[in-house]
Every structure is written in structure tokens, then in C-alpha cells.
Write a structure and sequence with these properties.
This protein is mainly alpha-helical. Helices cover 65% and strands 4% of the residues.
């Protein structure tokens, strides 16, 4: 079940870009989130183990986040946003080049 805050983020994305939900949630998997976690981590030159250490979580958990599985809590999203110094909303924004 998705939290109210995450649902509001998805609703806002969909209002601004009707195709956002299709890009963001594919078969229940948070594809853009997973890609953004990996991208932000790599931009900082961190390994998955380093991100896990900074967050106080396990390497397998970080690996799972980067490979789209529905195992993300709001607390984990808040911690990721804090570690990467971005907003939770930024984690879900499709990256435009």
C-alpha cells in the first residue's frame, strides 16, 4: 500500500505530466526511483555499500532499491533524500537531458 504522501507526489506528477504515472510506476515497480537512486549514488562516487553505511542500512537493501522491487518505505525515502540532499519529489522526477 502506498502512503498518502507518496500518493500526493504521484498525483502532482500526473497533473503536470499525464504520462508521468506510466513512466514512474510500471507494473507496481518504481522504475524512475530506482534509476535515480543509482544515478545519485554514482554521481557521488559511492558504492552501494557506502550508501548503505551512510544510511545505516544494509548493502542488500540498497541493492534491492536499485533493482525495482516494491520494498520502499516512506522512512527510507526520507533518509535517501537526506543523504543525497534532494527532496523526496526529486527522487521520482524523470531525468530529462
Amino acid at each position: 500500500m502506498i502512503s498518502k504522501e507518496l500518493q500526493e507526489i504521484f498525483n502532482d506528477l500526473e497533473r503536470r505530466d499525464p504520462d508521468a504515472a506510466k513512466r514512474t510506476v510500471i507494473q507496481g515497480e518504481l522504475i524512475d526511483l530506482s534509476l535515480n537512486i543509482a544515478r545519485l549514488r554514482k554521481e557521488r562516487g559511492w558504492s552501494q555499500r557506502e550508501l548503505a553505511r551512510r544510511m545505516g542500512t544494509s548493502h542488500p537493501r540498497v541493492n534491492g532499491w536499485e533493482h525495482p522491487i516494491p520494498d520502499m518505505t516512506l522512512r527510507s525515502l526520507e533518509r535517501l533524500a537526506n543523504v543525497f540532499e534532494v527532496s523526496i519529489r526529486d527522487l521520482f522526477e524523470p531525468r530529462v537531458k
